[in-house]
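@channel sequence for tomorrow's demo:
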Amino acid sequence: MPLALLALAIGAFGIGTTEFVIMGVLPEVAGDFGVSIPTAGFLVTGYALGVVLGAPIMTALGTRVSRKRMLMLLVGLFVVGNLLAALAPTYTVMLIGRVVASFAHGAFFGIGSVVAADLVAPDRKAGAIAMMFSGLTVANVIGVPLGTLIGQSLGWRVTFAAVAALGVVGLLGVARLVPDMPKPQGVRLRHELAAFKNVQVLLAMAMTVLGFGGVFAAITYIAPMMTHAAGFADASVTWLLVLFGLGMVAGNLVGGRYADRALMPMLYVTLGALAVVLALFTLTARDKVAAAVTIALVGALGFATVPPLQKRVLDQAQGAPTLASAVNIGAFNLGNALAAWLGGLVIDAGFGYTAPNWVGAALAVSALVLAFLSAALERRRYVPSTVVAGGAMADRRTAVHR
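structure tokens (generated this afternoon):
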């Protein structure tokens, strides 16, 4: 794998850290600004919505510059947003800083996925995408726990300042290691938008929303689930999340490796297994050992879908993949928000803290159904038919319109 992927992974590490570390320092942030925990929670929601909105906007703005230059601009925006958060004198300024940083998120992963895939041979594209996303998964194992520890020991402002410094390292890495890849000639915003007329692109994005949403239906409520159902102490939640992060790392690498060999079968296996594991989580959540194992499996199976789903979008949006790739990153965050909302509904309805696992299982099954539908439509693109004309038989292939 080219060294340029290391620079992309460093940028992904910083972005992953800043996205999730706020959850670990939320009480400190709320206390400093004198706001309630639910109000401080908008720093999480605002970031997620910023990713969804920022992905298409920033990618559209980037159609006029080279991909390398756009990546540098995005990492620079990420640094500015985190510095603004670190120095924020008020809660409102802090929220603005979070949104500014989030606008770099979707476009960075979207454009970065295209660049990573272009750096390697065709049979290694999913592996290259997985290598870049490994920075995001490692962030959940190292960056988030370390950032939380720093925030609790030295103050949350130091945490965001450190993340900004990490962004500077990523910026230097992109400038030094990523080759200057000019934007494809003849590709305009209207060409990028045309990819969304392809039903396969839309199906892949729907699989992203539902499949990864299944993961976050459970993980969003992991703290109350583990303390109330499994009987863990509050302090144990940190290392349980590390287990989840380790599962993500393993799943990401495996997903990237096998998606290059058999992409759709990989999705069938991972989405099906994810649905089963999430359904079983309603039972295993009541035993400490079984719950810990299940959390790691949810992370592994959930993130094993990421490289194949991202590559599926790139494959189906050939010729103008950048915007579709970036919007698919927003789809992951949309799935997170949707699943968290649905999980909250079943808890509020009195079904208990393990009920979101059933929601996650249902979302994963829905994604699996869409995967089978997508494959069926692809097989029907060309259907063999027999035509008899003048006593002679000729075979032809008839295109079936989607």
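heads up for whoever presents: The longest helix spans residues 4-33.
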